[in-house]
Design goal:
alpha/beta, N-(1-d-carboxylethyl)-l-norvaline Dehydrogenase, domain 2, Rossmann fold, eight-stranded mixed β-sheet, two-stranded antiparallel ribbon, 10 strands, globular
Length: 411
């Protein structure tokens, strides 16, 4: 084995510092049955572009090795985020230490993952329990326009509602431009473009949503604004229509409570840009009907998306695992480690597409701070308290790429 250089050893240490709590958090998410093994891994692969999900990474590193590193970190820091998850201790005690042992979170034969009692089968494939022929979308921003494009390209008639003719015309113009680019790349022809455009039904009146089979709202992340919309959708939409929200942070249960049909309310958290990102987090409340959940997951599959299931709590899967790691990166930089060194270390050692500070600047540091504050409020975990430097850059207006200054500067 080639001996690692001092620089490589430093990069490995930086990456370990940030990834160990992230891996531990994923184990805790799984052990509480918040999400399945496969959905946790799929969420981080398709939602963040990571090469492997956290539970797969744990199996490859060895659960015993990770447990020992966490225990050492916990003895040093006293931070509960470093205390090895109980399930990690249990699996190690049972000899399920990962791929090398043939069993960890997954089951292995000759080093390859094989089906076990937790593996999904063809019989588990979701089916449309409600007929979905016409889709409604409320909103005209980037996310809403992307969702309109996704459904229209998949063959659905899409009624989309905006506040003005200018707003809805902007959606059509943006989709037309995207389709033209697809033609240039040889992924679409003029007939295909015309078919997509013909499926677009623009309106400035919510009443146009009266005959849709599902409506997806993608408006401002403001609870009062969304509550008003859901009350109105409840009045307008036909019986049996599914009411979905793309919220990434607000309580879906409260939106459901604003209607007379809480069993028909569900979360469909698309990732931006919606036409490109494969993941949709399908979020159920305690009152969401099973057939609504199954139909929504089947609908995701029909438009080429990967659906993962979780319950209604702050962060869902992706944000709940991602943002504490990003927050930890800021705290590590506060100890004097260079930002660029952290970014490059994580990309080189973990294979992540972006370093944490590059990603914070892309997401927007104000958005990142708001999400971290929500996680801290929900879980009451001291280690989730937003890093002081994150609060500082937001206070200074250094919000990232959109302001050309964040943790890094942009010309």
């Amino acid at each position: 084995m080639t001996e690692r250089t001092p620089a490589q050893q430093t990069a490995q240490q930086i990456t370990s510092t940030l990834l160990l709590p992230y891996l531990n958090h994923a184990v805790r998410m799984y052990e509480t049955s918040y999400a399945s093994r496969d959905d946790i891994d799929a969420a981080m692969r398709f939602g963040c572009g990571y090469p492997k999900g956290p539970l797969t990474v744990l199996d490859e590193l060895g659960l015993d090795a990770v447990r020992d590193q966490l225990a050492a970190r916990y003895a040093e820091s006293g931070d509960d985020l470093h205390r090895p998850a109980e399930l990690l201790e249990t699996l190690v005690a049972d000899g399920r230490t990962g791929a090398a042992a043939g069993r960890g979170f997954y089951t292995y034969a000759d080093g390859e993952v094989v089906a076990d009692e937790e593996s999904a089968s063809a019989d588990d494939r979701p089916e449309l329990r409600h007929e979905i022929a016409r889709v409604g979308v409320v909103g005209t921003g980037t996310m809403a326009a992307g969702i309109v494009q996704v459904f229209a390209r998949a063959g659905y008639d899409v009624v989309f509602v905006g506040r003005s003719d200018q707003k809805v015309e902007g959606v059509v113009a943006g989709i037309t431009k995207a389709l033209d680019k697809a033609i240039e790349r040889g992924k679409l022809d003029e007939d295909g473009k015309s078919a997509v455009i013909e499926r677009l039904i623009a309106s400035t009146e919510r009443e146009a949503l009266g005959d849709v089979d599902i409506v997806v709202e993608a408006i401002a992340e403001d609870l009062e604004v969304k509550l008003e919309l859901f009350r109105d959708l409840d009045r307008i939409c036909k019986p049996g229509a599914i009411l979905a929200t793309t919220t990434s942070s607000l309580p879906i249960t409260q939106l459901a409570d604003a209607t007379s049909r809480p069993e028909s309310v569900i979360g469909m958290h698309f990732f931006n840009p919606a036409p490109v990102m494969k993941l949709v987090e399908v979020v159920t409340t305690e009152l969401t009907a099973a057939e609504v959940d199954e139909t929504t997951k089947a609908l995701c599959a029909s438009v080429g998306k990967v659906a993962v299931s979780c319950g209604d709590r702050a962060g869902f899967i992706v944000n709940c695992l991602l943002f504490p790691y990003l927050n930890d990166a800021v705290k590590l930089a506060e100890t004097g480690v260079d930002l660029t060194e952290i970014d490059e270390a994580v990309k080189a050692e973990a294979g992540f597409p972006m370093g944490p500070f590059q990603l914070l600047d892309v997401v927007g540091n104000d958005v990142s701070l708001a999400i971290q504050q929500e996680l801290y409020a929900e879980f009451k975990e001291p280690g989730f308290a937003p890093a002081a430097t994150l609060e500082q850059v937001v206070a200074e207006g250094r919000l990232g790429r959109k302001t050309r200054k964040g943790f890094h500067d942009y010309s």
